[in-house]
Amino acid sequence: MGNDILMTVNWSRAQFALTAMYHWIFVPLTLGLSFLVAFFESIYLRTGDESWKKLTKFWMTLFGINFAIGVATGIIMEFQFGTNWSNYSWMVGDIFGAPLAVEGIFAFFLEATFFAVMFFGWERASKRFHLFSTWMVAIGSNLSAVWILVANGWMQNPVAMAFNPDKARFEMQNFFDVALSPTAVQKFTHTTSSSFLLASLFVMGISGLFLLQKRHQQLAKRSMVVAAVLGLVSSGFAAFNGDESAFHIAHRQPMKLAAMEGLYTGTEKAPIVAMGIINPDKKPGDNLPAFKQEVVVPGMLSLLANRDPNSFVPGINDLVYGNPTRKIVGAQERIASGKIAVAELAKYKEAKKTGDQSGAQAALALFNQHKDDLGYGYLNRPEEAVPPVPLTFYAFHVMVGLGTFFPIVFICVLFCAFRGTLENHRWLSAICFACLFLGYVASQAGWVVAEVGRQPWAIEGLLPVGVASTAIAAGSVKTTFFIFLFLFTGLLIAEIGIMVKQIKIGPEA
Amino acid sequence: MRAAPRELFAFYRDGFRSMVLGRTLWKIILVKLFLMFAVLKLFFFSNVLEKEFRSDAERSAHVLDNLTRGASK
Questions:
Q1: pLDDT above 80 for A476
Q2: What integer pLDDT is reported at residue A148 of this predicted model?
Q3: How far is B2 from chain A (nearest CA, A)?
Q4: CA dist., res. A442 & res. A464, Å (int)
Q5: Which of A92, A166, A304, B35 has a CA between 20 and 30 Å from the CA of residue A351?
């Protein structure tokens, strides 16, 4: 790849990462807080206690601020698809175009209807219809995340499609196989459950601040209990579907799993690295140690990957150079196969142009034999199939470490609430406040694992990011990167400012 | 039957009028949408394939060229 193209691709990736990470500041809170607000309002309707109404309105206001600042930030990514990722955009248009548009229209009407009742209807709608609207906003917000997550799942595990060489497009073969593929289902369940977790931490964090400041203590304690229950349930669910996700990654994206664990040499009874410092000089194929320091749990990675603690888990070297003993085809071999696919696709194109039907059929037949390795045909060295290992490893371990810590906090909160001593433990309130920020760290780290860990692929094994991108000037992508950086920073400052002001005003507003 | 649309209109009208914090949020939303659609989309984010090619056949051919560029060298 030429330097100019590499610059363009890297700036396009940086821009997409910036936009996606910014978008992901708002989305999980919207997904999770909408349900918490619905729970709070349900308790109000059941008890008739006006202080629950006040509490519901307070959190609903913060939900509204987050929603307003975050609204339409996802559309920026669609702009980028058309400009920076035009090849990719064209190739997957048949699979994602229509459902994403339908989802957008559905979300707009749902929000325009029930959102209005939720915010304007306290005095105009019946209590039951108002609660119904709040639940509809919560359900609708979460449903509107379905197809984009299905799309992401498909990019990680492209199923139920066929490549049409005449149109240069991946075409959907079966809608339900795409929508219900295990990767898509786990992507949705893990994303939503971790979003509930983040929203629980958000509510507990602000409630913890109120307890530290000895303000709005009843609201804080009630909010914390409901949030801790949802957080604890969500933690269990996120751990369960996270484990399922890792199992599928082991089989569909073994390179990503190897990078997540910094596993270079495949082994039986493969250990999980509980904590470790990656050796930054380590490269595939060399004899350097992978870690400078590590604490491992033997057999756990094998158990995670294959449900058998004695089983073999391939490492980066096996997947790059192949391992005939284990019948693992390496990237080296797949590059050779992929180059045949690319060459036959070129022959097919030329044959169609010249009207050589038999030549086209012969080229297509050979292309079909090698099409599963198409993406590898664009790599020059097998080592290019390896994602950035340190970033993937650390992001994964930060996510798992925090994901293990949060349930302990939820249990402590519930224990203290049960004993009626929640406001006496200032250390716990301080931890809850810190968890507000740690929740975002864990949430962003999760997406870093998902997206950095699948590099170099835009579509796993079929389309590397270098080919997915548009050949435009790197300077223009760089310019828009900095425009976004300033715009997003400004909007984030606005959100934080409005949120802080509203939190200072408190529920009396 | 005519009362329903009138009530609906009044519902939204009164809702928007009674907003306090919502006014600030709507201003932010409108500025953001203006920047996104009237500035960024218009001047920086044209759809390359829509802009440079007139038909889907041309777009397919262009993407196919990109996919096979390495092979033809």
A1: yes
A2: 87
A3: 19
A4: 27
A5: A92
Give A331's contacts (C-beta < 8 A, 6+ positions apart): A319, A320, A321, A376, A379, A382, A383, A384, A385
Closest CA to B21 of A60, A61, A490: A61
CA distance A93 to chain B (A): 12
Q: What is the pTM of this model?
A: 0.93
CA B48, CA B45: separation in Å to the nearest integer? Answer: 8
Chain B residues near residue A70 by CB distance under 8 angstroms: none
> Cβ contact (<8 Å) for A65 and B48?
no
Residue A495 in tokens: 């959100």
Query: B33 and A494 in contact by Cβ < 8 A?
Result: no
Q: How many domains does chain B have?
A: 1
Q: How far, CA to CA in Å, does A59 sit from each of A119, A210, A247, A340, A420?
A: 12, 13, 37, 58, 23
Range of the structural domain that residue B52 is part of: 3-71
On whether any CB of chain B is under 8 Å from the CB of A505, the answer is no
A208/A433 Cα distance (integer angstroms):
5
Name the residue facing B12 among A116, A339, A378 (closest C-beta): A116
Residue of A nearest to B60 (CA): A167
A72 at the B interface (CB within 8 A)? yes
- Sorted by where each begins, the domain ranges of chain A are 3-253+390-505, 262-386
User: How far is the alpha carbon of B66 from chain A, nearest alpha carbon, in Å?
Assistant: 7
Distance CA(B35)–CA(A242), nearest Å, equals: 38
Separation of alpha carbons A139 and A31, rounded Å? 9
Residues of chain A contacting residue B61, judged by C-beta atoms under 8 Å apart: 168
- Taken in order A130, A132, A135, A137, the sign of the CA dihedral is negative
A36 sits in the region (left: phi over 0; alpha: psi -120 to 50; else beta) called alpha
Amino acid at A43: I
Q: Are A467 and A90 in contact (CB under 8 A)?
A: no
Q: What is the pLDDT of residues B16-36, one digit of tens each?
A: 888 888 899 999 889 888 988
**Least Cα separation, residue B73 to chain A (angstroms):** 10
